[in-house]
């Protein structure tokens, strides 16, 4: 997929499914960083190979022969590209791609595509069958000493229940990108006949009366319940787990379509994921504006000559008081050493972008409420450097 250009229209293959364009841009941006970092350090980390697993591969809604607008085409291009880059740097790393699909016609397309388009330097495997039933076979494709990235992108929510994902979540050397179909869940969570299903989705009974009435608070409540459930399943006696997320909005309505939840055991993974999400935020605004203009033109039969530039993007509302209070409470009356782990937990707790956490800290420093004990001079950005384990204190 080419780099996004805000002055170009949405690629034709994504017309009518603009939210998938955003999802694939995030997948591509984050996956490229992840594969390069993991591949570069594979020998030190003891990874025998790097395995990419697409648990609901399709292909869907892309009739092109190269499948450029699918996670299949995107992942194969990236795997081959990163493998070549690492090889040129003297890093010999084995990459493998595994694709799972249940639908017969989609699987035939998938299998045919892999048989003729798999890169020479990336072995591939196609698994036909129901994802839930094929998890043991999926795990066989991921040796215990390999690193595995699981992309779990179903059409609904029933297959992402923590009990179903349990054996994957408990696997060491693993990271996950899970599509949590909030729009569907939100419509279902209050319906009495689905309460047992909801209890399985959240790993606990849900009292409908506990659901906040405010839409934003309700969304956060539901999302936090699910994140807590999968984080709990992924924890091991040796390792904790962290989850972050990015919200994908409906291209035509001002409401959430789904959340892409990222799960890892390494704090740097959260930081990298949220940095990629931050880069994507203005792109999502532009794509949604373009989508609305396209629908308007289709319905009216006339062309909007001013295009997306005539519309202002939706600005993310940041509650600076909440972020500043978060830092203040974290620091408390003692010195806070800000490590990668501390900063990653702050991202998970607040769902703020990295620059927003830094800006909130800047506000506190300028108000002479907080001081960075290790900052020798005034800074324009990076008001705390977690790589240097800088110390924060109340003044």
Helices and strands in order:
Layout (H helix, E strand, L loop, with lengths): L17 H23 L1 H4 L4 E5 L16 H18 L6 E7 L2 H14 L6 E5 L2 H10 L6 E6 L9 H8 L4 E7 L1 H7 L6 H8 L12 H20 L7 E8 L6 E9 L2 H34 L19 H12 L4 E2 L2 H11 L3 H13 L3 E3 L18 E4 L1
Helix pairs in contact: 1-3, 1-10, 6-9, 10-12, 11-13
Which residue ranges are poorly predicted, with pLDDT under 50 across at least 5 consecutive positions? Answer: 303-315
Helical content stands at: 40-55%
What Rg do the Cα atoms give?
22 Å
Strand order of the largest sheet: 3-2-1-4-5-7-6
Task: Looking at this protein, list some descriptive labels.
3-stranded antiparallel β-sheet, alpha/beta, 46% helix, globular, 395 residues, 13 helices
Outline the structure in words.
It is a single chain. The protein has 395 residues and is α/β, with parallel strands linked by helices. It has 13 helices and ten strands. It has helices at 18-40, 42-45, 71-88, 104-117, 131-140, 162-169, 182-188, 195-202, 215-234, 267-300, 320-331, 340-350, 354-366, and strands at residues 50-54, 95-101, 124-128, 147-152, 174-180, 242-249, 256-264, 336-337, 370-372, 391-394. Strands 3-2-1-4-5-7-6 form a seven-stranded mixed beta sheet, with helices on both faces. A three-stranded antiparallel beta sheet has the order 8-10-9.
């Amino acid at each position: 997929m080419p780099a996004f250009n805000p002055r170009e229209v949405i690629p034709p293959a994504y017309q009518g499914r603009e939210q998938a364009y955003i999802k694939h841009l995030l997948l591509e941006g984050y996956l490229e960083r992840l594969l390069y970092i993991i591949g570069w350090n594979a020998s030190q980390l003891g990874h025998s190979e790097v395995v990419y697993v697409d648990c609901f591969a399709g292909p869907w809604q892309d009739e092109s022969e190269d499948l450029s607008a699918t996670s299949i085409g995107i992942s194969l291009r990236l795997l081959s590209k990163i493998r070549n880059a690492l090889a040129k740097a003297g890093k010999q790393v084995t990459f493998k791609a595994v694709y799972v699909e249940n639908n017969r016609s989609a699987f035939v397309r998938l299998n045919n595509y892999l048989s003729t388009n798999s890169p020479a330097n990336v072995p591939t495997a196609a698994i036909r069958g129901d994802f839930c039933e094929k998890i043991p076979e999926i795990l066989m494709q991921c040796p215990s000493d390999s690193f595995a990235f699981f992309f779990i992108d179903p059409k609904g929510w029933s297959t992402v229940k923590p009990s179903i994902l349990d054996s994957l979540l408990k696997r060491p050397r693993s990271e996950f990108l899970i599509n949590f179909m909030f729009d569907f869940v939100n419509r279902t969570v209050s319906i009495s006949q689905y309460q047992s299903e909801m209890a399985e989705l959240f790993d606990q009974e849900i009292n409908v009366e506990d659901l906040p009435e405010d839409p934003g608070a309700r969304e956060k409540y539901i999302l936090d319940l699910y994140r807590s459930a999968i984080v709990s399943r992924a924890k091991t006696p040796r390792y904790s787990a962290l989850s972050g997320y990015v919200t994908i909005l409906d291209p035509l309505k001002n409401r959430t379509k789904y959340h892409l939840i990222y799960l890892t055991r390494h704090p740097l993974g959260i930081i990298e994921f949220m940095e990629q999400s931050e880069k994507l935020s203005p792109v999502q605004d532009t794509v949604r504006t373009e989508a609305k203009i396209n629908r308007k033109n289709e319905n009216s039969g006339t062309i909007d000559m001013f295009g997306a530039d005539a519309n202002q993007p939706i600005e993310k509302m940041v509650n600076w008081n909440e972020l500043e209070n978060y830092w203040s409470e974290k620091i408390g009356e003692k010195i806070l050493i800000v490590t990668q782990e501390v900063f990653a937990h702050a991202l998970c707790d607040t769902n703020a972008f990295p620059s927003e956490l830094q800006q909130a800290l800047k506000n506190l420093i300028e108000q002479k409420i907080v001081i960075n004990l290790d900052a020798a001079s005034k800074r324009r950005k990076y008001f705390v450097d977690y790589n240097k384990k800088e110390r924060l204190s109340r003044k």
